[in-house]
Amino acid sequence: MITTNSRQITTQAGVSYVELLVVIVIIGIVASLAIMNRGQANEQFKRQNVARELKVAFERARFDSVKRRADGASVAFASVNVQSTQLTITTDANQNGTMDSSDSTTVSFPANISVAPRSGLSLPLTVSFNQRGEPNVSDAAFVVCNGTCSFSNDTQSTADIVYVTATGTVSMLPGGSDVANFAPPNVQVIPGGTGIRSQTQISSP
User: Taking CA 97 as the corner, what is the angle to CA 91 and CA 101, rounded to the nearest 5 degrees?
Assistant: First the structure.
């Protein structure tokens, strides 16, 4: 209480119960939105990690087959076996020239992350690479999803695409992207009497 010139001025400070309740409700709403956004970001991060792991697995297998000049007989192809919840990569990891049981590595995907192939393919699917780096499956494309989805309902916010072209190039695309089809390259075997070694093979576009 302040006294000035015989007048009394009363000052009060504080908030009412209604104002306090409004502030609490606003804080609760903001906190809920923050938690939801964080959860969505974590799911997206896990999905993109799986897509990158799948892409790297294909690239490692391709490089290994090219390096060892794999022919599928005396020199085994490197490969990636893709399932809906895991992948297994097989390469000559210990570099002893043969494929041993220790040369296979299985990576399990986190919960609520799954992989589906493009139309016409089914899982489990093994993609192997020859000495030219070409896959045995032409235009192998896989959609990596939060939950379960397919190429018919994938979106940029829920999926990523890992695509292996007919020449073996591996790309990672956002969900909902159009995946082009490329024909496998023609391979012409040159006879030994042409002055070129018989082991030489020429690929034409």
Answer: 50
Per-residue pLDDT for the chain (205 aa), expressed as one digit of tens each?
455 555 555 555 666 777 778 888 888 778 777 666 665 568 888 999 999 999 999 999 999 999 999 998 889 999 999 999 999 999 988 787 777 778 899 999 998 999 999 888 999 999 999 999 999 998 899 999 988 888 888 888 889 999 999 889 999 998 888 777 666 667 666 665 666 555 555 555 5
The owner of tokens 């899982």 is 123
Q: For residue 179, give both structure tokens.
A: 């995946």
Q: How long a stretch of residues is the chain? A: 205
Q: Nearest-CA neighbor of 151 among 139, 166, 167?
A: 139
The tally of CA atoms less than 13 A away on the side-chain side of residue 97 is 1
The residue with tokens 């923050």 is 34
Measuring CA to CA, how many Å separate 201 from each of 90, 186, 196, 204? Answer: 26, 10, 10, 10
What's the rounded Cα separation, in Å, for the pair 169 and 80?
A: 14
Question: Among 1, 36, 48, 59, which residue's Cα sits nearest to residue 146?
Answer: 48
Q: Are 148 and 114 in contact (CB under 8 A)?
A: yes
pTM reported for the whole predicted model? 0.71
